[in-house]
Task: structure prediction
Amino acid sequence: MWHQVFALIVKELLAVLKDRKSRMVLIGPPLIQLMVFGYAATFDLDHVPIAIYDEDPSAASRDLIARFTGAPVFQEVASLPSAHDIDALIDARRVAMVLSIGRNFTRDLLRHRPARVQVIVDGRNSNTALLILGYANSIIADFDQAWMRDHGRPPLPAVLDMRARYNPSLSSQWFIVPGIVAVLTQVVVLLVIGLSVAREREAGTFDQLLVTPMRQIDILLGKGLPGLLIGGIEASVIILAAILWFHVPLRGSLPALYLGLFLFIAAVVGIGLMISSLAVTQQQALLGAFLFMVPSITLSDFATPIANMPPLIQDLTQVNPMRHFLAVVRGVFLEGATLSSLWSHYWPMALVAAASLAAAGWLFRKRAS
Amino acid sequence: MAVDQVSAQVQRGAITGLIGPDGAGKTTLMRLCAGLLRAEAGRIEVLGLDVARDPAGAQARIGYMPQRFGLYEDLTVQENLDLYADLQGVPAHARPARYDELLHLTGLRPFTGRLAGRLSGGMKQKLGLACTLVRAPELLFLDEPTVGVDPVSRRELWAILDHLTRAEKMTALLSTSYLDEAERCNAVVLIHEGRVIGADDPARFTAALAGRSFHVAAEGVGKRPLYEILSQGAGILDATIQGAQVRIVTEAAGPPQAATLLPDLPGVRITPVPPRFEDSFVALLRQRQSATSPRSGRAPALAAATEGGGEDVIVVQNLTRLFGTFRAVDDVSFSVRKGEIFGLLGANGAGKSTTFRMLCGLLPPSGGRLRVAGFDLGHAAAAARGRIGYMAQKFSLYGDLSVMDNLRFFSSAYKLRGARRRQRIAWALEEFGLGPVAAATSRDLPLGYKQRLALAAALMHEPDILFLDEPTSGVDPLARREFWRRINALAEAGVTVLVTTHFMEEAEYCDHLVIMAQGRILASGDSESLKARFRSERRPDPTMEDAFIALIESAAAAQAA
Amino acid sequence: MAFLLPAFLLLIFGYGVTLDAHDVPVALVIDHPDAVTASFSGKLAHSPYFSPRAFATIGTAEKAMADHEVTAIVWLREDFTRKVLSAGAAPLGVIVNGMDANSARIIEGYLQQVWMNWIEARAAERATPPPLPVAVQPTIRFNPAVSSRDYLIPGLIAMIMTLTGALLTALVMAREWERGTLEALMVTRATIREILIAKLLPYFLLGMGGMAASVAMAVALFHVPFHGSLAVLTGTSALFLLAALGMGLLISSLARNQFVAGQIAIITTYLPAFILSGFIFDIGSMPAPVRVVTHVVPARYFVSILQTVFLAGDVWAVILPNALALAAMAAIFLGVARMGARKRLD
Result:
């Protein structure tokens, strides 16, 4: 049996590696995408264009403005002479925020009356808007405390002392780059190995396989193991790049990561083989793969948190292997997770892998019509 | 190089056939003529226009029907006609009369409201032709219009073409790999490996070989050993099996002497038969490539004839297969004896492929019993599948892999290992002449080599039963002969062969035939007895195709009644 | 297919994709509970963003965070009340799970609000002057409720239309090249332009239909406000679809093989539209070289237009340059595809 499986594996690998276009899919796009997305997929703000409208030019207002322009998050692109242009600038997306300092700013500060500062934010990207507002609030809070200290006012009863665990500088890259390991591995494994059954079926070679003494389990192994090998190498390269290039800390145990990777690829191969066994043509297989891939990435915690989704969709994500592998890869990278702490993510992937592989094996014969 | 130094003329008002096997360069030549490709060198003049310089001008006056005509399958027959009328700029006032004529000619009138996607293969082809003819072109290019079309529809298409050239004075250039169609053309251009090897009136080609075709039979010797001896005989250009006899074409004119032809055999009968177009094509090819392809295929011990009497190795009883409510195979029963070549014939959609797939275990039957070598392959242990060999349609191989890798893979898939595996791979390379191309990527092989490789892969494990699905479609006549010699030898050695084919002349190689239509068996028996049923005064010597069409027509008539 | 696919994707994403945190599980550790800490925990519990759970010790709370049971810890230490009442500046400890940096920042922002509310409420109770010198008046234009759905759904529509437009066209046209069914059309009097238009028009119309269905769903089902004009929406959608179809056509004429065309289409449309279009990640915050790359992603322009047309209205300063960019991309893609698809097969 192993002899046959081995022959199938060799054939599968040869078929992938000898085809120039398949080779390209394996090597080019993943690396380019890793580099582009590693930098592009960030929620961190940087050089957000802002405009300032200061109705009360004074030492105090200049101090506040300096705190804004001095922050790397913001970049002043305009200083407005009147309130007239504020809306137009924001509407045209030339600036994302306008800081408007009220007419009696210094007088109110000195008289212990609330000194008015308006922060006008472009809400078209509500996430950025919230982050900008958060930064603006912290800058103003710092200004408040400095003012109170310098002008002998009593300190606030309590001050926030915020710290972040696992990712102290709150870098998006630390969060996203391990996620890219999962996304790219899935895309490559699904496109290259998962769809191979549909391809063989259209070429007629799948019938040839079915009439040999190979059993379903042999064909499954022969198709699945190259997927594990290719996916494993692909993922390892990206993991290395995450550590060496993006400097994401790897705190947990590698066996825990690779067990997760193994189960994840097995599940993706299973789903891919299942889709391509169900499909009659390559076109259907591609659309099927696409219809699986898009929701599986979107509903995986990759960019948008599952915790924010409605409960029904949260339950639905339990059958998404990508969700569990993301938890494993991020857990191992950032939280230092170990084998024992990740069981709750291993078994759902194992279950999906077992079910989809069994279904694929069954469909091999069932759909041979 | 797809087309190399071709020079030819097409006569106005005639049907010219472009005849050659797949990969000969027919489609490329057609596309060149239609202005879809540009030639690297040379000049093509269509209706007095230089195609390379003015493709649009030429295209405005020609009609071109490619192999896969771009019918809109979601539109009805009428809507397709309207669309092409629009595209061809046919004025509205001219349409009703033209539609009327075309619908009458193609017999599609009852189906104008039907979606093109739901037409049968033959009807689609006729609709494609009608769309091409919607603006009566002066010159019609038809690229393999009859490929994949059953014999009945094939005859109808030819009737339409005859009418067009005779009544409408249209000129047609038609490509085909069916050699029997050449005889219907006014002129033929024979093309092989991108070069023209002959161009003339087909009757003259045939006449050149007059008096050189004979039927040979010998008392007490089976057709297969006889065929094997004759294929290697000196002075013999071509040998094929025809029913119970062997048909030969000699190198020299005049009847051969039995004593020189078969010196050791008593009771040899030699009867002259009329020549066929195919004879001349084979003769031309033989002259060209006498050395290139291995004419070997050494038959194993001729003496070990297992003529008849073997036990049944395939038994099919009341086999039925439903797709939804559609009965693709309906209550079919037959049996195949050991060492027999058994043919499964039928039009497209007759159920022969479905039956074939059920026998191989690729499709579970809905009802009935089915035993292959004592097993039902659909449920049998993997080991049972080790006893069969399977050669799929279009010679399915792993195109990205080399010949050697393919052989390695299939030998392992069939559980060969160690010394035996090495020995069988060596056998395959040697026996099929694949040694020189062992490292070549199999996708780039010429079709004939692909066919050999596919057969070699199916024979790696020396199976008891061999399943062949359309094993010779598209390959040139020499490769086809070489292939049948091997199959003949295998059957002689006791291998049971089950084959589907739509080449009616190949049915002659089979010991037993089953003709299917609409999921049922219409007739069964050997080719002689089937042909004999349709012998009449009008047709004293019917071909297998005549018999087939007569069978289908009488079945259709019976159903209509 | 071209019709159902967008609706299906929008349904899943519309419900599934949101960045709004609500009821975030927070561990509240109060070493010494009393009236002062109770006033703070009252504010925390009152916030719609948090659902606090009390933990007896910081140790158990840390364990709960490690097990992902809570996302943040608020820790009022032993001496919190004493410091509040005496010297002030009592440290209010907050530990956030920073793994998801974006969520962590948003949670921090919400906590900041709770903290400010508490300080101001205390001052009001005691009738002391406002403790914070500066009063910030935040104004979020176009999306006062800061609902991420309102900004994500227009972007989603752009992404979905890229996918369906480019992928379907690439697959369908690649199949036609592969099968050679275009040959019959090529020898008709129709020009190659007419042939391509004939082939693309049905997909264009289906795409516009899918677009209309998506917009209707966004407004009716997800209650995204629509401030712009239908005319601008229709016009820019048409431009965008042309660009997407052109991209699909270009892919198909380069690959001429369904499998490769599908692979290229999936790789070049889905992830770039997801990550590089500004649909979810802010383009302005990307490093300069990556920002340059985003300019070749047609979805980028359409995302910007849709977010504006939905939430802000017909702001020509946004619409015009983006529409021009789309028109240019459509012209380039279609032009190159047109050149590649001469009326010959070689």
Observations:
- The mean pLDDT of chain A is 87.
